[in-house]
């Protein structure tokens, strides 16, 4: 008589409902699950609807009226404000200006910030462990300092520095022999007003994003840089092939935030060029909106401008997400998982 050994059926051997062709069993709604959804989903959703969606819908409604802002009387005019807006040469000039700011300021700012971050974190000796330059903490503080100063103060300081008669910029340029810049009005010339505004924008924001990228680069495994160094990759190649893919999400988020700041540019512009610059060369939508609402008392028309600005901002964010996806966004994590799997397989085969 032979002995038989019975092997108990484990849970892993049992076919799941999905494997048998059925639907996954729905979990019961317990008190803990209900309270979790209410606390972490219901309350934030209610706040979002109350303070974002409802005001936006109200703005669309008021943008279709001729409300003066200080009177309860108004008339519904439909799409007349939007039609008038796109026939307004001043508004179209402001729209072109903010599009130019959104195209140039984020790119230049993030390029400089990334260069500063890479230099501080990876600019140390080319031999030995990968580490940053000596005194990295000092450079982080110096680069972050302009962001600590309020934007209105930064704008007023640079307005004085660009002063044609007593400004530091013209004084420095004439001291080094560039006499053609004596009494030169940087903010009073159409050709230089917008570049001067962009320079102040970049100067005031580059430090914050440099610190942001420094924190992101610190999270990249040092083994990747050491392997690249062993393979003979230089600093530029390492930055393009390792650093940028590793911090791609941070760059995307920073680009969206900077684009929104450029589209909504008001504080810097109002401090430097409160009247929109020569020939409205630096006028922004927010400035035009402010003037129409509080100086001309056309709040309905100004609200319509605000709606268009919100739509332009959403379109910008969608474009950034789309470009990131088309250029391979999200593939970095998949590649990292694949490389980890290959390394694990290699270790298993060697055993």
Number of strands: 0
Order of helices and strands: HHHHHHHHHHHHHH
- Using only C-alpha atoms, the radius of gyration works out to 29 Å
* Span between termini: 42 Å
Low-confidence region ranges: 1-5, 7-12, 332-351
Largest sheet report:
none
Mean pLDDT value: 84
What level of helicity do the residues show? 55-70%
Q: How does the helix and strand content classify structurally?
A: mainly alpha
Written account of the structure:
The protein is mainly α. The chain has helices at residues 31-62, 80-85, 89-122, 136-148, 151-161, 168-175, 190-218, 222-230, 235-246, 248-263, 267-272, 285-294, 299-326, 331-350. Helix 3 (89-122) runs antiparallel to helix 10 (248-263), helix 4 (136-148) crosses helix 7 (190-218) and helix 7 runs antiparallel to helix 10. The radius of gyration is 29 Å and the shape is flat. It starts with 30 loop residues before the first helix and ends with a helix. Residues 1-5, 7-12 and 332-351 have low confidence and may be disordered.
Core attributes:
351 residues; mainly alpha
Question: What's the short version?
Answer:
The chain has helices at residues 31-62, 80-85, 89-122, 136-148, 151-161, 168-175, 190-218, 222-230, 235-246, 248-263, 267-272, 285-294, 299-326, 331-350.
């Amino acid at each position: 008589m032979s002995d038989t050994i019975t092997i108990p059926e484990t849970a892993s051997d049992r076919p799941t409902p999905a494997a048998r062709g059925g639907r996954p069993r729905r979990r019961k709604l317990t008190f803990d699950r209900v309270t979790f959804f209410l606390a972490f989903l219901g309350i934030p959703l209610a706040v979002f609807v109350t303070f974002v969606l409802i005001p936006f819908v109200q703005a669309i409604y008021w943008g279709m009226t001729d409300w003066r802002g200080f009177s309860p009387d108004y008339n519904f005019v439909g799409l007349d404000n939007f039609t008038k807006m796109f026939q307004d040469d001043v508004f179209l000039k402001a729209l072109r200006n903010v599009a130019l700011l959104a195209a140039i300021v984020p790119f230049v700012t993030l390029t400089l910030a990334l260069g500063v971050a890479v230099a501080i974190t990876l600019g140390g000796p080319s031999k030995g462990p990968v580490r940053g330059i000596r005194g990295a903490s000092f450079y982080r503080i110096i680069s972050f300092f302009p962001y600590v100063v309020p934007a209105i103060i930064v704008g007023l300081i640079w307005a004085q520095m660009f002063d044609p008669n007593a400004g530091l910029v013209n004084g420095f340029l004439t001291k080094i022999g560039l006499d053609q810049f004596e009494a030169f009005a940087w903010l009073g010339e159409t050709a230089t007003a917008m570049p001067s505004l962009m320079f102040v924008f970049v100067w005031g924001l580059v430090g914050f994003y440099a610190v942001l990228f420094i924190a992101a680069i610190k999270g990249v495994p040092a083994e990747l840089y050491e392997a690249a160094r062993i393979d003979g990759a230089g600093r530029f190649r390492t930055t393009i092939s390792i650093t940028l893919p590793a911090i791609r999400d941070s760059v995307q988020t920073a680009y969206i935030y900077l684009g929104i700041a450029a589209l909504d540019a008001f504080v810097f512009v109002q401090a430097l060029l409160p009247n929109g610059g020569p020939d409205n060369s630096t006028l922004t939508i927010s400035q035009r909106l402010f003037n129409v609402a509080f100086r001309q008392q056309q709040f309905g028309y100004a609200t319509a401008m605000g709606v268009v600005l919100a739509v332009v901002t959403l379109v910008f964010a969608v474009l950034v997400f789309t470009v990131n996806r088309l250029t391979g966004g999200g593939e970095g994590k998949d590649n990292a998982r694949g490389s980890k799997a290959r390394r694990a397989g290699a270790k298993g085969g060697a055993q």
